[in-house]
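Tutorial sheet, problem 5. The two components below are modelled jointly, 742 residues in total.
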Amino acid sequence: MNATSFDPAKMRSLLTVSHTSGLFSGIFDPTSQRFIGGCIDGSLVAWNYPALDSPTPFGWRHRSYVYALAALPQHREIVSAGLDRRLVWWDPVAATPLREVMTSARPLNLAVSPDEQRLAVVDDDRWLHLYDTLTGKLLASYDGHPMMTAKLKLSSIYSVAFSPDSQLVATGDRTGTVLVREVATGKIIHTLDAKQFYNDYAIDAEGKPNGGEHELGGARLLIFSPDGKTLVVGGMADYEYNSAATDGRMGFIGFELEKGEAIFKTVLPKDKGYLQTAVFHPNGLLLAAGGGGTAGASGVGTLCVLDLAKSDQPTAYPLEATIRAIALSATHDQVILFGMLKTAVAGHVETWELPAPADST
Amino acid sequence: MNPAKSLCNPRIHSMYRRHFMGTLGWGMSAAVANFNSLTGLCSDLRADNVRKDDKRVIILYLGGGASQMETWDPKPGQPTGGPYGAIPTSVPGLHISELLPRMAQRMHHLAVVRSVDNSGISSDHHGTGIHIGRKNEAAVQFPTLAEICTKELVLADTQVPPHVELQVWDTFRFETKHGMSFLGSQYAPLVLTGGKRPPDMDRLPAVSEMDHADREALRDYLSRRFEQSRGANEAESYSRTNGRARGVMACDELLDVDRCDAADLARYGPTPVARHCLLARRLVEAGVGVVKIRDTWWDTHGDNFEGQRVKCANLDHALSHLIDDLVDRGLMSHTLLVVLSEFGRTPDISASLGRNHWPKAWSVVMGGCGIQGGDLWQDEC
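Model answer (structure tokens):
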């Protein structure tokens, strides 16, 4: 098949496996040629590709949820971030830890620059830290995000992404503020407004908006387009009800980076919860996933495909599981989803086939 | 070592309601009766009024249901324990959530009850169970704990409001508003919402201070004559209500959190729950008997860990400053501080990372008024 193309309308679920601990993070590791997930029990576990069999736990575990994972193919390592305030570098083949860095706050996400020179870590104290990817040496720390939300709660930075040329790094927070910086200097070149994903809508007993304390949300997903011209922000938009559940609808905002202006805003019609994770397929389509909404006809999770050129026509597939991480297989013909099924202690891994269009086979 | 066994203090096992009320034994001072000069109570001398034997109650109500796992009863390392760790406190062997680092240094002032079970009286926000201590009944409007304290400890005759409820935000949407109880209106709270003083409490501009006083004197003269000739309870009630209204009018500065000392405002910070804790401290110093701070939106059916984390950060800051002030000003020995919700949250974590309602085993902390700080009550005892 043509590995650089697929038909979003023909995607289908291939394999589903369960795990004894909910999965908060996950990657495809080119070094070990395995899918690796980070669990709420602090462990990392690897599954063979493509069979998703023989789950193998790593030889050490974090003391809290493993919030993020990233592969370092050039270094043949992977790195994990845990809420135990630890960054851990691993040998993915031996499944053993190599080195560890303690952080001052809880790391909520990380990203590796495409040139593998920098590891960016964002935390719940609203800092962006840049580390030397190989040594783990802290190179720079940047603040600049609002300290508090409109409802005077401490904000956090939830998302981080590098541009394809490794020159820019973007960070997104609870308030829906996205900062785009130069990696070399830390200079902020854009402050982008994704406040559509900060939800403080509340209504009183008569159903009238009353501006209460209720709030949810944030810019949970950031990803640069492969050409580096567009930054896509994802989250939970259009919250119309002040339930304490995450029942807003998933949404995207696309920003054109040259001018720092929003060029599209897309809200999925049925799919609820946070849009949490995304990856660009080599053919240019964006595969994104998330969940967390109350179960309904649309399911509790969603896998969707977005063509940036036709941003008003996303393709969405409902899922039974809430998805926290997505990864592409080495041959780009499968996507793997990591998450939780019904409860956080029930890990869920699912692969989907990305079939080629009929005219390309 | 089982910390529950080592920390369990049999004294609290014998605590029951009448004992509790007896501990608070009330002798309301008339020192606050001069309501025309109540604004002066914001001076440094105001605490002297409450260093006498009179008791006060502050209830910090975390509406929506704070998670015991993320506050006073952490279970790190358990599958359902959540991502946050437990930290040691100023009480050896007692650990609380790492989300409350300032409170951890002050736990020797508080007792923790980790085995509260109110499953028989309320499991959703619609009930008023935890407020009234029993199942709600449509035919009878039972008084709240705060109203009972107001009646038994304080204070119908005070001229500052004896019972004030500070609604940090709007009342939680799903919670039934509590109506007038059978105890009567004199024990119902004066409700302040969002740190705002009650509306329409200003003297009309057309009525001078002198005219206002003259009118009150005439009203008082006529009321007394009426009461002497008729001996009617209604007249007494009317006079009491009138006196209350005048007291509230005179409390203008007292009820306005923005008029607190600038250093206090800076220390407590801008969050609504902190500003209301500061206001609560001012109110008890000024002689208000019962203050309920009604925080909201602890209801985290989705995204529990982020929701509880940001709420706990504000709670930790606010509550720790309130305790510091109560201790530093000598108020802790006769001010009962209770922190509770309508229920806790489930040990189970949903796939949306939420915890749902859990009335079967959750936590309340309390301190002051003779309660032994550092005590712990949980099922293992």
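Marking note: The first strand of chain A starts at residue 12 and ends at 19. Full credit if you identified this.
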